[in-house]
Design goal:
- With 145 residues, the protein is α+β, with helices and mostly antiparallel strands.
- The chain has a single domain, classed as 2-Layer Sandwich (Alpha-D-Glucose-1,6-Bisphosphate, Chain A, domain 4), CATH 3.30.530.20.
- Helix content is 28%, strand content 44%.
- It has 4 helices and 7 strands; from the N terminus they run E-H-H-E-E-E-E-E-E-H-H.
- The longest helix has 23 residues.
Length: 145
């Protein structure tokens, strides 16, 4: 069973500011509650092919995975895919102007295997809750709340 979680919010800041902050992997531990650390594998420049190692805690388990930037269109789109990790996952950020600021959409899709496949509905619900909270945290940081 595939996992597909899409969450969006409007942040009262310009697209350039929201995209610059959110797309920078070094900021991920600041606004993602589950991400503990990010280490660049390649030069710390956000370009297609760049790789970074993430360590997260999710559903009580430590997860270590490597993301590779698949697509990067500054101020519009960032798509990262796992190059190594517990199951194939794709994370996509989009940014677009919206009344009052920037609409940011975060979408996680993946195809769990093994035990994770059986737990996919629970994982998807937990991911949706966590993603909503993460975007709320990002909004608070960028809006200075």
């Amino acid at each position: 069973m595939a996992v597909d979680v899409r969450v969006e919010t409007v942040i009262a800041r310009p697209v350039a500011e929201v995209a610059a902050y959110a797309a920078d992997p070094s900021h991920a531990p600041e606004w993602y509650a589950n991400i503990r650390s990010v280490e660049w594998r390649t030069d710390p420049v956000l370009v297609e092919g760049a790789e970074m190692d993430f360590v997260a805690r999710f559903l009580g388990r430590r997860l270590a995975y490597t993301y590779r930037v698949a697509t990067y269109r500054p101020e519009r789109l960032l798509v990262m895919r796992t190059a190594e990790g517990p199951f194939p996952m794709e994370t996509a950020y989009t940014w677009e102007p919206a009344p009052g600021g920037t609409r940011m959409t975060l979408r996680n899709t993946g195809e769990p295997a093994g035990f994770a496949r059986i737990a996919a509905p629970v994982m998807e619900a937990a991911m949706r809750r966590a993603t909503r909270a993460d975007l709320a945290r990002l909004k608070g940081i960028l809006e200075g709340q």
